[in-house]
Amino acid sequence: MAVIKGNWPYTGVITREKFLFNEMRITAQLQFKGLSDDEIIDKVVNDNLYQYPTNRMLRSIARACLRRLASLGDPNLVSALATAPVEVAKQIDLYGMMCQYHLVWDFMTTVIGEKYRTNNLSYGRVDINMFFTALQEQNENVAQWSDSTITRIKSELNHVLIENDYLDNIKSTKLNPVMIAPILERSIKTHGDRTALIAFNCFD
Fold first, then answer.
1. Which of 34, 66, 127, 162, by CA, is between 20 and 30 Å from 153?
2. Which domain of life, per UniProt (predicted)?
C-alpha cells in the first residue's frame, strides 16, 4: 500500500479532488485494459471521457484519479473498481481517498469508525464540527484554512458518506450499518493496515 503516514500532511485538496466515482471508474477501466498513465491521460483528454469543459481540468483530474489508484497499492482493487458492482467499487474509491488524504483517513477512522465501535450510530453537524475544531487545535496548517474551505470539505465528506450509504441523505441523523466488501477486507488485511477496517464497520 502506498500510504505514507510518517510525514502525511493535511490538505484541503478534496474540495477539488472529490469522490469522483465516475471518473475513477473510467480511469480504472482504462488501466485495467493495460494503458499506461500517459495513454490514459491522453485518451481522457482527447475523448473528453469525463465530460469536462476544459482540457486543463481533464488532465488535472485524470492525474488525481491515477494517484488515487496508485494509493490503493493493489491491482485487484483497481480491477474491482473497474468491473465490480457499483456499491463495491464505491467502497474501494472511498478507501482510495482514505489512503490518499490524511483528512479523510482521520475522519473515517476517528469519527465514523468510532461510531461503529461504540455502537453509537447518531450522526450530525456536531460530530463533524467537533472533528474540525480538534483538528484546528492540533494542526497549524488546518488552523489557517478559511471558513469557506472547511465548509466545502465538510460538504464533500458528507457527500462521500451518502454515496457509500452510510447516510440516506444530507438530513439523516443516524448512520446506517455498512458491510465491507470481501475483496477490500482481504486487501486491507493482506497489507497489514487493519486500522482502516473500523471505517467500514469491520472489527474482525
1. 66
2. Bacteria
Which grid coordinates are listed for 49?
471521457
Q: Give the C-alpha separation, 96 to 58, whole Å.
A: 20
What's the rounded Cα separation, in Å, for the pair 158 and 103? 13
Q: Which domains does the chain have, with CATH numbers?
A: 13-85 (no CATH), 96-200 (1.10.3540.10)
Contact predicate 183/101, CB 8 Å: no
Read off the amino acid at residue 25.
R
Which burial class, exposed, middle or buried, applies to 10 when counting CB atoms under 10 A from its CB (0-12, 13-18, 19+)? middle
The grid cell for 99 is 489512503
Per the CB < 8 A criterion, the answer to whether 62 and 41 are in contact is yes
All cell numbers assigned to 56: 486543463
